[in-house]
Structures are given as C-alpha cells and as structure tokens.
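We modelled the chain as a single entity of 371 amino acids. Its sequence is:
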Amino acid sequence: MSLTGTPFFLTTIALVVVALALPMILWARVRGPKIVRHATRFVMLLFAQVTAITLVFVIVNNANGLFDTWADLLGTGDHVRVAADLGPDGTGGKSVENEPKVHQKFEPVSDRRMGAGVRQTQLKGRISGVEGEVYVWLPPQYDDPEYRDRTFPVVEVLPGFPGSAKAWFGSLNVNTQLKPLMEKGEVAPFIIVAPRTTLLGDVDSGCANIPGKVNADTWLSVDVRKMVLDNFRAEDKPEGWAVAGYSAGAHCAARLAVAHPDRYHAGVSLSGYNDPAGEPASLTARTPELRDENNPWKMLQRAKTPPDVALFISGADGDGYEGGMSIKESAKAPTTVDVVRIPAGAGGHGTAVWERQVPEVFRWLTKRLRY
C-alpha cells in the first residue's frame, strides 16, 4: 500500500476508530489474572497511541510532501546504479545532443492530490546512472491547435529534504494555481517538470556530482533535461529553462543555475541557504572542500565570467534572506539577483508560505524566460 495514497490514509483513520472503540467496549470485560488484565489494557492503550501518532504523521506527510515511498521513510531507497566521474561539466565527455533520443512512456498519476493533468514516467538516466520517477505537467496551450508549431519554456521544480517529487503539485498546487493564470495570459505557458531528488535513502545528495556516490547534478541538468526535449515541444536553449526549489531544493536551484548558465537562464530559491551545511544530511556538507565547491555564493565569487542567469531569492530573516543578500552583493553583470524578504509571522519554514509565492514566482519567470 502506498505511503501517500488515499487507501493508506483511510486505513489509518479506520485503525484510530477501532483503537478508540476497543477500550470502551472491552475495558470492563477483560478476564483472567490481574497481570493479564493490566497487560491487555496496556496493549489497548498503546495501540490507541500508535494509531493516533500514525494518523498525525500521515496528515503532516501528505500536507508537506516529505516521504513519497516506504523506502524513503525507512531510508532504504537507492536510485543510483553507477556514479562514474563525469568531469567538470557532468557529461563524461559525451555530446548530449548527439546521444540517441530518450523515448519515454507517460501515464496519468494515480494520486488525486496532485491535481489534473500530471503524468509520470520512470526514467533511467543514461549519463548520470540515476533512476527515478519524473512528473510532467503541460500547460493548457500545449494541445491547442493554434500552438501546434510552438515550443514551450520549462521550469524544473525541486522539493526540500526530505521531500517528494510530488510536492510541488500535491502541496504547493503549482498546476492548479497556474492554469487559470496561463489561460488569462498573466503567466507564460510553462511545462512543469518535477524529478525525484531523494536518491540515496536518508542522505541528501545536495544536487551535486560526487564520484563513487551519486551524479545528482547530471541527473537533473542533463538526463532529465534531455528526456523533456526528446518527448515534448520544449525550448532547447537555456533562455527557455529555469530551475526552482524550496528549502534544500532552493539551495539546489541556485547552485544549478549558477553552475550551468548553458542549461538554465533562471533560478528560484525559496527559503534556501548557501552553505551546504544548512542541511546536515547533505553529502556536500561533509568536507570543507565540498562545502566550498557547492556554495552558490562562493561559486559566483570564483567565476571568471559572471554567468548570464537571473536569480529570484526569497526568505525570512535567519531563513534565506541574508544568504540572498550575500549573493546579490557578489553578483556582477550579466548576473541579476532579486531578493524578497518574507515578513515575520508569515508562516515560518513551510509549504504554506511557498504555496502563496507560486503566482509571484511564475510572473517573475514569465519576464525572464523566452517563450
């Protein structure tokens, strides 16, 4: 039974009802020696506590998109087949555009909380050695005959850690919020792509390439990108691509945009951080060298040629705002940085805050990407 599915949610509710009913019905009817009666009643109370805690966990998990599968919850999932050293650009010396086309079969998602129109596929990254699910939502204009010769801009969306690839659809409601705005012409008709980012159980990859461990950067910026280009009418130039994320995904988005201006023209960071140590479970937080290499603020400072990217960074005091200002102060043209301060009391570090930012973020992207 799926961890996030409706059947499991309804099952936990039924178990709570049973757990509450048992003591009321059987408490005075328990027979046997005193120790047996006490033990039986203790088990009933314990069962009630466990089922109540489980129900609360399921509600919180569904609301925030934390764990997608049982393997994610237990930290046993491994989506890495190989992790070869792919070099500085993460391609292993391959010319990606000359690689064979990636033809994928897509199916509608079964999770109704993700809204209408979301489809999924299981992708085996040929270059990264990563395998995982990818969710795609197409804008309302995509199947309109008037747009049959048009290509569409793409936004890759990343969750926090722990975090499910479903979260932008199931918790932030990005598709249901944007569809009417796209139909009115207020927001560009973006293709929204949500790839799996939890690749190594209870360890955060930091969206980086670490030989022998994981090639998360290549998975996101090469394999997923090529799959989208090979299966949909998507813009193939970086001017038509952006990457957005919240929390640990925000760090990833800023890092990927700064590292790959040849793949992304814009990056959106919602309540993120610069130093990978902002997520202690991150592989890139384990050594000073990795922390330095994967800090987008320091990456900008080291860049011989400032990347031609636009960054949108939002955060509250002590939760992303200061890091955003550091990046803004370090940026040199053509890099542009817009920093938004989230006021105190807006809701803290949670999906409710980021959900409210979706229209603002995509209006900003509409002005930055080509379409």
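As a brief sanity check on the tokenised model: The chain is about 40% helix and 15% strand. The CA atoms of residues 80 and 130 lie 5 Å apart.
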